[in-house]
Amino acid sequence: MRVFLGILSLIWITLGVMLILYTEKVRGFFGKLFADADIRKLAVFPVTIGLVLLAGSFSQTGMFWLLFILGLLAVGKGVYLFLGPLPQIKSLLEWWFTGASETTIRLWGIISLLLGTAVFSYVL
Known about the structure:
The chain is built from seven helices and no strands. By secondary structure, the protein is mostly helical.
């Protein structure tokens, strides 16, 4: 389980740094990537990550609450993407990829970097 959490934390760190340094390029890349994607099928990824985090919370008791809450949020996101109203989800994604300010995107990059660093420093 430590390996999965370590890999996940490295992905968070990488995405956080990329969002901070190359905000528009990363946003454009993901915007093109998700423009034609079937959102219902992509809901599997947050659910899977959430389940890994939930399982990791029970194996890494020192970070139980952080991993548990992040796992619940990820599973909730996946369920929303799968069951939520498609026009609302498309509108949210459109806002994220075109309408959100650069400061907002960089803030989420900082949050991703901090969460990834916290998990990585504890797990490994």
